[in-house]
Amino acid sequence: MGAKGGGEKLSLVMAGHLSRRHNVWLFVPEGSDVGELGRYFNVDLSRVKAAPLNSPGLMFSALARARGRSKADQSGALLHHYLQIRKLKLDLFINNTYRSDLVCPSARGIYMCMFPHQYQPPRGLVRRARAALKSLTVKAVTGYAPAEMIDSYTEVAAITRFTGEWVRKLWGRDPHIIYPACDRMGPGAAKEKIILHVGRFAAEREWDDEHHHKGQRVLLETFGRLTDIHEDGWQLHFVGSVGRDEESANFAAALAEKARGLPVTFHFDADFGKLRDLYRRASIYWHATGYGHPAEEFPAKQEHFGITTVEAMSAGVVPVVIASGGQKEIVTHGADGLLWEDLDGLAAQTVGLVRDENLRARLARQAVLSSERFSREAFAASLDRLVEALLPDGPVV
């Protein structure tokens, strides 16, 4: 819960909503400031009990000792957390952690899937042997090896049809589709000549298939070429939290340096009030996650849903977003926004919107209406149906 992205927001909204009718524990890493995160995302967590997942003891430290970048090397920590959570004897456990290999620590469980992954043993004979030993230990305690983790969950919920298709391909499970909860950021104020992008600033790592990058660099480069609209008074604003690691901080600093002399503003770690104000004043919203990585070849690098796109639409900001992943389930081209496949398309469609106020106004009106499909109320109703089917008497989650 250290980051401030869509996954973290979904966890908090889910916990806050379920706490109205259930006793809810929210499991977080040690040192997490749950109160601050609740304020950042405007979520009432007053009824939620935060439970820090403590570090493994000496017995599990040997299992948890990292070797390379393999998920298999986290078996010790996962086993420790499994035992820590199991002690609470929960009636239902909901796992909303991206690429988690945690075996379900309760009799019933829901795996909220942003995008499915497959267990990958490490390379090298020694590391594979070590991973096999860890796998046997995990299975002896939990009943499931890491590669069998998804079988321990009663139900799987996918956040989009895009994710759901890959759940069927990779996991052989038929998931429930539950779109994430999105805030209404409107009503829109007097619109200004602002193009907005919202997304966490994280280092670009081509080798890392676990995370999808938000594409701020290509958006900045594209805007830099649109000198005609600069002269017309248009600005580009970036909003987002900065990753805690040094690489991400350096990435954010390099972007700011590259933007020198351009009508570009960065709002690092802006609070909810500032974010909402920018949504209300912006006219166009940009999104580029997945650019440069074909969806069939790199599905995990696409935007799995796109909460910020919906939030922008709710404030009457016209989305001009990449035609990939979950974005295609949010935006209908020509009806409530525009989709693009390459940077020339992004530039051309943006310039077209800038020049045509009537088109902007029409798309903005429909964007507000379309965004209502993804409200917190719609999310809560879908979640309640699934939870109540598993817990008809409404005990502890």
Report on the structure:
The protein is α/β, with parallel strands linked by helices and 397 residues long. The chain folds into two domains: 6-181 and 377-390, 3-Layer(aba) Sandwich (Rossmann fold); 194-373, Rossmann fold. Helix content is 41%, strand content 13%. The protein has helices at 6-18, 34-41, 58-64, 75-86, 125-142, 161-171, 216-225, 227-231, 246-258, 272-281, 307-314, 327-330, 343-355, 357-371, 376-390; strands spanning 25-29, 49-53, 93-95, 109-113, 155-158, 176-177, 194-198, 235-240, 264-268, 284-287, 318-322, 338-340. A six-stranded parallel beta sheet has the order 9-8-7-10-11-12, with helices on both faces.
Which properties best describe this structure?
single chain, 397 residues, alpha/beta, Rossmann fold, six-stranded parallel sheet, four-stranded parallel sheet, 15 helices, 12 strands, 41% helix, 13% strand
The appropriate CATH architecture of the largest domain is: 3-Layer(aba) Sandwich
Number of helices: 15
CATH superfamily of the largest domain: Glycogen Phosphorylase B
Portion in strands: 5-15%
- Head-to-tail CA distance between termini: 18 Å
Strand segment count:
12
